[in-house]
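Late entry, written up from scratch paper. The run itself happened at the end of the previous shift, but nothing got recorded in the book at the time, so transcribing now.
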Amino acid sequence: MTDAEAPEIKGWCPGAHRPMMAADGLVVRVRPPLGVLAPAQARGLADLAEAFGTGFVELTSRANLQLRGVSDHAAVLAGLAGLALLDDDPDFEARRNVILDPFRHAQDVDLAAALIEGLRAPEFARLPGKFGFVIDTGPERQLAGISGDIRLEASDAGMILRADGQGLGLPVACDMAATAALDLARWFLASGGVGPDGRGRLKLHIASTPLPARFCGTLPPVPAAPTVRPGANDTLTLVAAAFGRLAARDLRALSQQARALYMTPWRMIAVDGPVPPLGPDAITDPADPRLGVSACTGAPGCPQATVETRALAASLAPLAPGGLHVSGCAKGCAHPGAQALTLVGREGRFDLVRDGAPWDKPALSGLAPQTLAEVIRR
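Output as recorded:
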């Protein structure tokens, strides 16, 4: 790929105050406080999506929601403020990146609240927009596969603080866990973890800058939990969104009898209450083949994509049980990593990468969309 062909990488995520312009309008990201929506908030968000957006909400891999195609940003901000879904401080909103296990435990909410309150301090204003925290303190790690720079997890001996990329964690008392996580973030900032472009991730930083001994632990985290699937799970029912997109009417329907709606980083919503009949974008069947497929917005919604993605992904899903990623360009927004099969849009056609990421060397290039089913069957 030449520099001229390379997609533009923004290096930041949209927010509510700072939306991102796409080909179909503004993208406004909503970060529900502590990762939970009250039923009235869910209904209000559905109303905003229908009145000022595409009529859909998107579920992100950071347990947030997005409105696309927003035509009136001021009206959406006013609506979010009325729903108590808007931070007054735009800078603080951008760094409030804390993911909780939706099957949360008693201490998780208190931990998250303390961590978020600590992040209000001006000293954390330089944290990169993609820098995040994970709170995953259950007997099994539900969020083991979710990206997070600083992790608070359980071990057989209690709670641990673990830097991303480190196999072992440091034991911490529950009432000091948030303080310890913030101290690690301070070290990241003070030791040059943020580059001149404002980007930086802890795992990459400690590959070249050794982690101080005070953050190095000896305790392994508890084992990872099995992959979460849609349907009934313990006390919650999970509803997946096909390729991360859920019709606003389905979000409204989920809120009708629910006590709460918990956001997850699996592009699912965990509902505390009964689930009514929903539209085709909502998935409650754990065997649905679309669950093994990732697809980004694609054309015409994304200005960097030259191919349609979601309808194609739906048609190919039954043919790729080992996993498939349909990416409108080489950025790989929907699945920034390796997959068994990856289709990458380029000038209206597709390149095919086997067991790799969108930016890896393709096995086949210049494939017409109508030939892809046959190619995948081979």
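The first helix runs from residue 39 to 52.
(Scratch paper discarded after transcription.)
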